[in-house]
Design goal:
The protein is mainly beta and 244 residues long. It has one domain. The strands form two sheets. A ten-stranded mixed sheet has the order 5-6-2-8-10-12-18-14-17-16. A nine-stranded mixed sheet has the order 1-4-7-3-9-11-13-19-15, with no helix packed on it. Strand 16 and strand 17 form a beta hairpin. The longest helix has 20 residues. This is DUF2154 domain-containing protein. Keywords: Signal.
């Protein structure tokens, strides 16, 4: 019964995602996609917080030289608008075309164009990144990132992350509806806490389990390690080691 309910909910989520993000781009507007660059300046740590009402989000580490990050949003996704704050992280909100902040995305979307936000980080800059998405997939390739902290919050949509092999950092993923897949580099030690309501769970072989916590061998002494927490309401969770 639970599996049937999960299947139905995931099917509904897939239909929502298809409606919200998967229509083809109108060629007449493709040239007007927003491109945003944040210069490196004197920053020693990139602290970013981005709110996305409805769009697929793709993140990699291919920012241009001297850039804190580069971003590009398709016309239907809207424009990244910075929230002015005197202190703290750089906060951006993806605003739908012609609408102000907080306006529901379906009031400004014509149903014919793809909603996508591409974000490129600087691989040499220590980074603390928070992404909040209401509707849409999040796919992050952080293999080369200098990550210090990552926080992902998704309401409806799959989340996929490839983590970096270097450093000691924390990752927190919260998903209300959708699958969560995390890939660990082969030489990265990991402590993984999973709190899951409904869905299958897949973990790498060799991890020691104590309650909701799964730990790889040598974690406490490892120079390269991640403290990973996953909170999943409805959806499968898969944590794997690259190449296995």
């Amino acid at each position: 019964m639970k599996r049937a309910a999960l299947g139905l909910l995931l099917a509904l989520a897939a239909l929502t995602l298809a409606y919200a993000t998967s229509r083809p781009v109108d060629p007449s507007r493709a040239a007007h996609a927003q491109t945003l660059t944040e210069p490196l300046g004197t920053s020693r740590v990139a602290k970013l917080e981005i709110h996305v009402p409805a769009a697929d989000v793709r993140v990699d580490t291919r920012a241009g030289a001297g850039h804190l990050f580069d971003a590009q949003a398709t016309p239907a996704a809207g424009r990244l608008v910075r929230r002015l704050r005197p202190t703290g992280p750089l906060v951006y909100e993806l605003q739908a075309p012609g609408r102000g902040p907080g306006v529901p995305w379906w009031l400004s979307w014509n149903g014919q164009e793809r909603r996508t936000l591409d974000l490129a980080l600087n691989p040499a800059m220590p980074t603390e990144l928070a992404l909040v998405s209401n509707v849409g997939e999040m796919k992050l390739n952080l293999r080369n990132a200098a990550l210090r902290r990552l926080k992902l919050q998704g309401h409806a949509g799959d989340i996929g992350v490839i983590l970096p092999a270097r450093g000691q950092y924390r990752v927190h993923i919260a998903s209300k509806l959708g699958e969560v897949a995390v890939v660990l580099p082969t030489r990265l030690a990991a402590r993984v806490t999973v709190r899951q309501r409904l869905g299958d769970l897949s973990m790498p072989q060799g991890f020691t389990r104590r309650g909701d916590v799964y730990t790889s061998a040598g974690y406490a002494q490892a120079a390269q390690r991640v403290d990973l927490t996953i909170e999943a309401n409805l959806g499968d969770v898969a944590v794997s080691v690259e190449g296995e």
